[in-house]
């Protein structure tokens, strides 16, 4: 829990600096309002923690209605617990096998990449595998090397690089239960 507490304190510090231009953030009676002070100097954040903070900030920037949910202490506690859990299936770098590598390149060039850190947000709706395969095959149409890429390799790449990637651990903010 120490890592998740440090991460939330880092988020709060980032939010405090981001809104230092006079907009301010006020969450009366919540964990968030208590921790909007600058992050203590003894806390170091890993690259993964920084990526998580950036993703959370992007989620809050693009969906400002979720910002108010940080005022609910139960949501903050759930968020801290979610941040403490293992990340699950993360986006992988390109595979080493040639066929899998080529299929991954084609899938990514077709635009099948989650925009924030390669991971979806918890409430993102993903298209079906068949729709995504049609999109990738449409992007391949007319290319000379299209016949060299097997359909099963494309399906595997779509699953591995897009459909089965674990979402960011922000379910506590995005779910509608107990809003």
Produce the secondary structure layout.
Elements: H1 2-18, H2 31-34, H3 47-62, H4 73-84, H5 98-109, H6 129-140, H7 151-163, H8 171-174
Helix pairs in contact: 1-3, 1-4, 5-7, 6-7
Oligomer: single chain
**SSE arrangement, N to C:** HHHHHHHH
Total of DSSP H or I helical runs spanning 4+ residues = 8
Residue share in helices? Answer: 40-55%
Principal-axis shape equals elongated
Head-to-tail CA distance between termini: 24 Å
Low-confidence stretches are 17-41
Percentage of β-strand residues = under 5%
Largest sheet: none
**What's the gyration radius in Å?**
20 Å
Find the structural class using helix and strand composition: mainly alpha
| Average pLDDT for all residues | 76
Please tally the β strands and state the result.
0
Q: Count the domains.
A: 2
Explain this structure.
Residues 17-41 have low confidence and may be disordered. This protein has helices spanning 2-18, 31-34, 47-62, 73-84, 98-109, 129-140, 151-163, 171-174. Helices cover 50% and strands 0% of the residues. It has eight helices and no strands. By secondary structure, the protein is an all-alpha fold. It folds into two domains: 2-85, no CATH class; 98-163, no CATH class. It starts with a helix and ends in a 5-residue tail after the last helix.
């Amino acid at each position: 829990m120490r890592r998740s507490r440090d991460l939330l304190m880092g988020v709060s510090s980032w939010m405090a600096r981001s809104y230092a231009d006079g907009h301010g953030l006020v969450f009366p009676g919540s964990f968030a309002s208590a921790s909007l002070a600058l992050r203590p100097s003894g806390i170091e954040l890993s690259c993964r923690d920084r990526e998580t903070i950036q993703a959370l900030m992007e989620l809050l920037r693009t969906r400002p209605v979720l910002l108010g949910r940080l005022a609910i202490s139960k949501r903050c506690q759930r968020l801290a617990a979610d941040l403490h859990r293992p990340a699950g299936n993360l986006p992988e770098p390109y595979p080493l096998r040639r066929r899998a590598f080529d299929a991954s390149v084609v899938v990514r060039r077709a635009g099948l990449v989650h925009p924030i850190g390669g991971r979806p947000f918890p409430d993102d709706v993903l298209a079906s595998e068949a729709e995504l395969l049609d999109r990738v095959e449409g992007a391949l149409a007319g290319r000379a090397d299209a016949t060299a890429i097997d359909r099963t390799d494309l399906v595997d790449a779509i699953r591995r690089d897009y459909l089965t990637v674990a979402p960011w651990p922000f379910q506590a903010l995005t779910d509608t239960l107990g809003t």
